[in-house]
């Protein structure tokens, strides 16, 4: 049997898909990239630019495809998937590398024990009901006892025992516990900067100081225990008994000046009342029972009896 | 400048967490910004590039006063200005933070620089590097009456010219364009889904460039491998060297920049024809926009920022098992794929080793043998 013709045909076909170049083309399959490092052929470039570019691209793509098709493949629904090798050409990142977070308490335990993470689904198969139920969320199994209309209780149960409330309380406790653990993890992760013990100490000392001043006499006459620090209070400063005349004159003039000024403190002085110092505003308010002057103008015959509810009641 | 948002709902918290840095990053979101005067060509180019880059592209509708190369001119003229960034750079940083984008294309047409586009790349919220190009000979995607590829598909990239490996400015351009056209970083790809190729080629290398041999622009320590691994380092250092070159060399550099070959960007859809063998024969049909670019100004990345940007995450165990990572002594991956190590314990003198006492294994003392013989004799006597 003459196989040379078959072999030749095979070779010819192979020739179709191979690309021969001076410098072999560099292929970075990870990026799906092919780099042709041969110098550009000037004649072909000047003759017909588009054709030249197209031919160049075709050769490069052919080499790239040859490399891609020779990669190990895996089957998938959409056809063969080629497993790409790691990238050679490195590109700069967009953001800085993520800082490695310290492992949580559970993660450390799991790592030590060799426990691997098992991914659980939202739906679970319930043998009793023969259907898929949610573990949480809408019609979730975790709320089953709270939401069902009938719950069996033991014969010797307390009459006040409400299984629905008990179940709800339990669930809320679990949530609170999880939240507490989560916060503890976060504190530990950021925690080295807060330096736990010393911050707690400062907190305690602050509360002790507040407690000591929370007595009837503001902590002034309380006996001090051994080991307690001296309470810092506001220090009152008194001027010396004998002052120079100049100083006294200066302070007196200053005081008079501020009394005369438009400063905010001084403006609190009550308005000058003419006509026998009657506070008209207050009088109107009282007489109109809070309704104002307008209501007093011819309003007495209007159906509102004086017995009715005024601000201070009708009996006055 | 941007206020820190505290998430109040689970959805907003998820959105905020999605913006956290990851080990393997998402493709760069590109913002297309138009300057004060754009013109038909730049508008068309923006539309086509956005089509290629969907869905990781955002287009700003309004025109903005933006000049990315502003601070460069500012700092040289005014001596009193502090080393603060110009307002254009500040705008870019603000937009990047707000849109969670890390790449810009700024389009502007002036009399001096017609049909100009500036590619800007960000790292960690700050500008990393910029390249300005001018567009000549633009043919829109709509003018090619051929079928187009599915948007969002990962393109095949093809670079043709040896200058992409040797000349620092083209190395920089290659890095920028790969970052621009790159899609998702994937570990496996469907072989049927390789629909389009973006081909970037240069004109023929002019002889003037060959004389001022490009290798002289790069430090002699850079081999081809290290260029591949960290290409931008070559660019960063080359620009530093260029600024410190003696006058004659500097002028030749300037001359070289004037005669840099043009960049041709073409996009084709692939047609796979069955050949006899497993690898199909590929034919290309022109699809997308056809652009001819001219390199103008550029700003190389700052060396320190670049070092941070090129940091890789530590290799995971799975990668080490695959055989990656630096060659560690006394550790290797055997044929079964297990990691094996060797422990060297040094010379041991086994005679001095103290083990457990086992009577049966002990060496007989010479006196014992005689006694046993005598006993045997006695036993025989007794039995009788």
From TrEMBL, chain A:
The keyword Nucleus applies. Residues 187-199, 287-308 have a biased composition (Low complexity). Keywords: Nucleus, Ribosome biogenesis. One of its GO terms (biological process) is ribosome biogenesis. It is found in: Nucleus. Its main location: nucleus. GO terms for cellular component: nucleus. Residues 220-251, 261-274 have a biased composition (Basic and acidic residues). Residues 208-217 have a biased composition (Polar residues). Residues 187-316 are annotated as: Disordered. InterPro entries: Ribosom_reg. Involved in ribosomal large subunit assembly. Belongs to the RRS1 family. This is Ribosome biogenesis regulatory protein. It comes from Ephemerocybe angulata.
From TrEMBL, chain B:
Residues 1-13 have a biased composition (Basic residues). The keyword Nucleotide-binding does not apply. Residues 1-21, 344-384 are annotated as: Disordered. Residues 28-304 form the Brix domain. Keywords: Nucleus. It comes from the Eukaryota. It is found in: Nucleus, Nucleolus. One of its GO terms (biological process) is maturation of LSU-rRNA from tricistronic rRNA transcript (SSU-rRNA, 5.8S rRNA, LSU-rRNA). The keyword Mitochondrion does not apply. This is Ribosome production factor 2 homolog.
């Amino acid at each position: 049997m003459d196989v040379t013709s078959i072999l030749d045909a095979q070779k010819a076909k192979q020739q179709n898909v191979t690309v021969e170049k001076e410098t072999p083309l560099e292929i970075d399959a990870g990026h799906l990239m092919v780099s042709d490092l041969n110098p550009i052929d000037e004649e072909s470039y000047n003759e017909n630019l588009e054709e030249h570019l197209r031919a160049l691209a075709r050769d490069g793509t052919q080499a790239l495809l040859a490399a891609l098709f020779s990669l190990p493949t895996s089957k998938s629904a959409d056809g063969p998937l080629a497993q790409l090798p790691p990238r050679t050409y490195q590109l700069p990142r967009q953001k800085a590398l993520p800082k490695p977070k310290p492992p949580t308490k559970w993660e450390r335990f799991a790592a030590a024990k060799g426990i691997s993470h098992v991914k659980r689904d939202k739906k679970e198969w319930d043998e009793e009901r023969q259907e898929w139920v949610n573990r949480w969320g809408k019609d979730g199994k975790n709320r089953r006892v709270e939401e069902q209309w009938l719950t069996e209780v033991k014969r010797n149960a307390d009459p006040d025992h409400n299984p629905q409330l008990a179940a709800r309380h339990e669930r809320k406790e679990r949530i609170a516990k999880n939240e507490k653990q989560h916060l503890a993890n976060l504190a530990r992760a950021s925690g080295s900067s807060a330096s736990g013990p010393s911050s707690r100490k400062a907190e305690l000392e602050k509360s002790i100081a507040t407690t000591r001043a929370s007595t009837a006499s503001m902590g002034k006459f309380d006996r001090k225990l051994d080991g307690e620090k001296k309470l810092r209070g506001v220090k009152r400063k008194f001027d010396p008994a004998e002052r120079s005349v100049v100083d006294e004159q200066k302070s007196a003039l200053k005081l008079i000046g501020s009394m005369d000024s438009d400063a905010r403190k001084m403006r609190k002085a009550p308005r000058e009342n003419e006509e026998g110092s009657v506070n008209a505003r207050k009088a109107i308010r009282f007489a109109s029972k809070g309704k104002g002057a307008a209501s007093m103008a011819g309003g007495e015959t209007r159906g509102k009896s004086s017995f009715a509810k005024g601000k201070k009641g009708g009996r006055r | 400048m941007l206020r820190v948002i505290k998430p109040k709902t689970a959805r907003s918290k998820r959105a905020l967490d999605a913006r956290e840095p990851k080990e393997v990053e998402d493709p760069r979101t590109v913002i297309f910004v138009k300057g004060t005067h754009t013109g038909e060509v730049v508008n068309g180019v923006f539309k086509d590039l956005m089509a290629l880059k969907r869905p990781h592209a955002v287009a700003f509708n309004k025109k903005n006063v933006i000049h990315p190369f502003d601070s460069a001119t500012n700092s040289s003229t005014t001596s009193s200005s502090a080393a603060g960034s110009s307002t254009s750079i500040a705008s870019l940083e603000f937009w990047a933070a707000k849109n969670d984008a890390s790449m810009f294309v700024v389009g502007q047409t002036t009399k001096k620089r017609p049909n100009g586009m500036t590619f800007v790349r960000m790292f960690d919220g700050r500008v990393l590097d910029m390249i300005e190009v001018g567009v000549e000979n633009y043919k829109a995607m709509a003018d090619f009456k051929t079928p187009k590829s599915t948007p969002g598909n990962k393109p095949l990239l093809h670079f043709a010219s040896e200058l992409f490996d040797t000349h620092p400015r083209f190395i920089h351009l290659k890095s920028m364009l790969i970052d621009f056209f790159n899609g998702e970083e994937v570990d496996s790809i469907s072989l049927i889904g390789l629909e389009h190729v973006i081909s970037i080629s240069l004109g023929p290398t002019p002889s003037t460039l060959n004389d001022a041999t490009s290798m002289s622009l790069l430090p002699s320590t850079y081999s081809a491998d290290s260029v591949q691994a960290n290409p931008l380092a070559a660019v960063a250092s080359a620009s530093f060297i260029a600024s410190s070159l003696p006058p004659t060399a500097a002028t030749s550099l300037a001359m070289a920049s004037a005669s840099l070959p043009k960049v041709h960007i073409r996009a084709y859809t692939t047609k796979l024809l069955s050949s006899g063998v497993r690898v199909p024969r590929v034919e290309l049909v022109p699809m997308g926009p056809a652009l001819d670019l001219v390199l103008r100004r550029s700003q190389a990345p700052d060396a320190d920022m670049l070092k941070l940007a090129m940091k890789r995450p530590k290799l995971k165990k799975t990668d080490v098992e695959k055989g990656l990572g630096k060659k560690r002594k006394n550790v290797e991956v055997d044929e079964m794929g297990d990691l094996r190590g060797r422990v060297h314990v040094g010379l041991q003198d086994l005679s001095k080793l103290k083990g457990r006492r086992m009577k049966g294994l002990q060496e007989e003392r010479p006196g014992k043998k005689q006694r046993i013989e005598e006993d045997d004799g006695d036993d025989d006597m007794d039995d009788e």
